[in-house]
Amino acid sequence: MPSMTDLVEKVRAGERVSADEALELYRFAPTPVLGQLADEIRGRKHPAGVVTYIIDRNVNYTNVCVAKCNFCAFYRDVGSPEGYVLGFDELFRKIDETIAVGGVQLLLQGGHNPDLPLSWYEDLFRAVKERYPTFKLHALSPPEVIHLSRLSQLSVPAIIDRLIAAGLDSIPGGGAEILVDRVRQQLHCYGKATSDEWLDVMRHAHRAGLRTTATMMYGTVETDAERIEHMVRLRDLQDETGGFTAFITWSFQPDHTELGAERLITEATGVDYLRTLAMSRIVLDNFDNLQASWVTQGGKVGQLSLAYGANDMGSVMIEENVVRAAGASYCMDELEIVRNIEDAGFRAKRRSMHYEVLGDPICYERDVPRMLELASAREAGDTHVPQELRFYPARSRAGKKERDDMQDELQNGRIAGLQN
Ligand code: SF4
Questions:
Q1: Using one digit for the tens of pLDDT, what is the confidence trace for 109-129?
Q2: Using CA positions, which residue lies closest to atom 4 of ligand 1?
Q3: Distances (CA, A) of 219 to 138, 211, 232, 253
Q4: pLDDT at 45 over 60
Q5: CA 13 to ligand 1 centroid distance, Å
Q6: From the CB of residue 100, how many other CB atoms can be counted at a distance below 10 Å?
């Protein structure tokens, strides 16, 4: 193993570090040194002093999920009175609100709901594209694609092709957690996607011409070496396909989760986050963009991320449900994101899904209403079931009963305005 001084020089010279070398740096390099190295790499990749962000909306179309990951506070069981599926009209309204504040895409993810067949997604995507032809759908993380593949008994490439034909623009990198199967087994997420299966979805998506993101959720049961292994696996796939636009890492949010309660895991610290972010900049030498996760770390650590390798402040977001369910509820509107970027010494620019600069902040051009808290999927107490669901076959017993009840109500004339 080279000395720490030699390792630092190796990174400074732009050479790739091995997994063992990365682990040595991660464990033993002083935090300011890691930050300096990551900042130098960011400066080489983004010399213009620009930090980007996107205006979009983080929408979760359903919270019903059969995967039951033990780190998740968001999901509800099939048949739960707290389970929901958003209607097409609700989703259109969310898109209208997003476009009104300059938004350009939906980040659309949800639970593995057995009562939403592939045709529901295809119809939704087509309907969105018909109404909003230039609006982008950054939708369905790899485990959701795998869920649809199992539900439809179609291959993953076939599912991806069908979703692209319906309007899918990009796949978000959610559900990666840690791409090491020992960890996935302990997090009860091995069944939804093994490490190889997650990577294979991304490989197929890239081959089909999509750009995607990659993520890492750390701070559960993994070792430092397994965090590095995760990064190296992503780096290898990026060498193969070049399809990743960005990497985003965040810490496990333990509140209201089975894992947090069982193992008394507390949230990782801010320094752990900054060191992990800096290491990802060092290891992922073939990734252009690193996002700051202000939604889990708060605005102040989010801003510090810009000195630890991040070149993007993520999303104005508008809405968030998953992290909030686990106890974190930070909010930053465009004005606040821009203030944080500029105060850190950078120029703020709006970007697209593909990290192309779209222009200056909207708040430079016109008054944008302040947003003091992020919206949620639905107003509290709204439990309505979208009427169009009756057109889609359900798989679960509870779902079948719900659809039968809807048909009965229709026949009894209690649902107006819908014809078979
Ligand atoms: S993380 Fe996703 S797949 Fe896992 S239980 Fe939560 S909603 Fe389901």
A1: 999 999 999 999 999 999 999
A2: 69
A3: 26, 27, 18, 9
A4: yes
A5: 41
A6: 10
Q: Phi and psi (nearest 5°) for 237? A: -70, -35
pTM score of the predicted model = 0.95
Distance 342 CA to ligand 1 centre (A): 36
Q: With a 6 A CB cut-off, is 217 part of the ligand 1 pocket?
A: no
pLDDT tens per residue across span 219-255: 999 999 999 999 999 999 999 999 999 999 999 999 9
Ligand 1 atom 1 nearest Cα:
72
Question: Residue of the nearest CA to atom 2 in ligand 1?
Answer: 111
Q: Which two tokens stand for residue 397?
A: 């017993």
Structure tokens at 298: 């708060």
Alpha carbons 185 and 163: distance in angstroms, whole number: 29
pLDDT above 50 (res 411)? yes
pLDDT band at 418; cut points 50, 70, 90 = very low
Ligand 1 centre from 188 Cα, in Å?
10
Q: Over the stretch 25-44, which tens digit does the pLDDT of each residue have?
A: 999 999 999 999 999 999 99
CB under 8 Å to 32, separation ≥6 — which residues?
none
Across the chain, what does the average pLDDT equal?
Answer: 94
Q: Does the beta carbon of 72 lie inside 6 Å of ligand 1?
A: yes
With bands split at pLDDT 50, 70 and 90, how would you rate the model's confidence at 367? confident
| CA of residue 406 to ligand 1 center, whole Å | 27
The Cα–Cα gap between 170 and 403 comes to: 31
Question: Mapped to the 3 state alphabet, what secondary structure does the chain carry?
Answer: CCCHHHHHHHHHCCCCCCHHHHHHHHHHCCHHHHHHHHHHHHHHHCCCCEEEEECEEEEECECECCCCCCCCCCCECCCCCCCCECCHHHHHHHHHHHHHCCCCEEEEECCCCCCCCHHHHHHHHHHHHHHCCCCEEEECCHHHHHHHHHHHCCCHHHHHHHHHHHCCCEECCCCCCCCCHHHHHHCCCCCCCCHHHHHHHHHHHHHCCCEEEEEEEECCCCCHHHHHHHHHHHHHHHHHHCCEEEEEEEECCCCCCHHHHHHCCCCCCHHHHHHHHHHHHHHCCCCCEEECCHHHHHHHHHHHHHHCCCCEEEECCCECCHHHHCCCCCCCCHHHHHHHHHHCCCEEEEECCCCCEEECCHHHHCCCCCCCCCECCCCCCCCCCCHHHHHCCCCCHHHHHHHHHHHHHHHCCCCCCCCC
